[in-house]
Every structure is written in C-alpha cells, then in structure tokens.
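REVIEWER CHECKLIST
Item 1: Sequence provided? yes
Item 2: Single chain? yes
Item 3: Sequence as submitted:
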Amino acid sequence: MRASDLIGRTAHDLDGRPLGRVADLITRRDDQGRFRVVAVLVTPRHRGRLLGFERPGVQPPLVLAWLSHLLHRGTREVPWDRVRL
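Item 4: Structure as written out by the authors:
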C-alpha cells in the first residue's frame, strides 16, 4: 500500500465513528530497517497542506505556529492500531 492510498481517506475509530481525514502518516524503522506506519495525523477539516508544525515537539516561528494552529486545529495523532480506514 502507498501513502497516497491513505492520505485524504476518512479514518474511523475502532467502533466505526469517524475521526476525520488522514492528513499525514507517522513512520518508524523496524528491526530490519523498513519503515512501518505507527500512527496517522487526522484532521477534522482539510484546508491546504500540512506544514509539519502539527507534529508534537516541533517549534515553528510564532506567526507560522498561529497560522498552522488556526488552519489545522483539531489535528491529532492517532496510533495506527486504533484506526480503521
């Protein structure tokens, strides 16, 4: 499966309730060095592209932080094993 097959699709929780649209994938390397999806960034609305500032621990310039927060409020990271597409 390709990232483009997942991004933009509606994500649901394990009970079938919609969470929003998949905006980005979060990956980690496994023991063999292959990338595996470990979580998705889900947004309740899709306005433009993500700038990368939606990820926890990223510190953007103040103006960009405000703009990113305004456009992508409600974006959250959901563990891959908690998502159904």
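Item 5: Key structural point noted by reviewer: The beta strands are 10-12, 18-29, 35-43, 76-79.
Item 6: Recommendation: ____
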